[in-house]
Predict the 3D structure of the following.
Amino acid sequence: MPRSLFDTQPLYDLLEQQQHHHWATQLRQLTQAAIAPGRDGHLPLWTDTWLQLPDCPDPVIRIDDGAVAVDGTLSADQESRLHSLLKVLHPWRKGPFRFFNTEIDTEWRSCLKWDRLAPAADFRGRKVVDVGCGNGYYGWRMLDAGASLVVGFDPFLLYLMQFEFLRRYAPENTPHFLLPLSDQALQTAPACFDVAVSMGVLYHRSSPIEHLQLLWNALKPAGQLVLETLVVEGGPDTVLVPPGRYAKMRNVWFIPSVELLIRWLLRTGFRNPRLLDLSVTTTAEQRSTPWMTFESLPDFLDPHDPSRTIEGCPAPRRALLTATR
């Protein structure tokens, strides 16, 4: 039997079993407030769409050529209806996914980032917190890699619904949860996670140091941080503060050099920071698709000089680092 919509009670039960009663209560209250009627005008439509998802007697979730896939038996009519229901949740940004015979070609080919991330951490038997998790794509990959628990945080309800669409077909005891909350929900978190993952979040924070501190606080001693963020070329004192938008994004605050980012990690208490990957984002990884028809990377770059953004800043370059609490 699939779980009901927004069923996070098993997570709170688990936290309480581990004597984290206060945080469990806080998360329950914050989550209930985030999905309360009136918080998002689209929520009634999305909820109704979730209720129309076709039943499947034998669903299996697996990884298929980089896609998080749901396999099972549906009729042709059910397949057609499912395709239409999935379109209601446009835009699909992180993925790819496959729901039975419907392939969702998402804006980001997140499987490429996963290929860079996978060697960074041993997820087997680990409890993972994934901050800014989007629709949970990476969490499903972490579970497949052996994680014992994945708790994702992302405040956008559309991403929560995309996650719930897939979890609709997951076994009841699947230890993967997504809470519609920001990193601020970690302020009172116990140090209970083995791995903390933050990808594509740091540059959206007006206080990147606070973000790193929150991740540090949530980790057990000797726990591991996996951090992916925008960086610029330069020395230990280099940071880009966009005067306005960056690649048409409004909420970009600080883009440090790798050396400065390592300094931030050390100043917040992390040990042994290591750069694992440095790569320029290309249209092979981020682009518009029929499942995300809005502007994407080609529209964010200078058409005459793709090494610059449309605003004249250095084009997106992403670093993947790991460090230890």
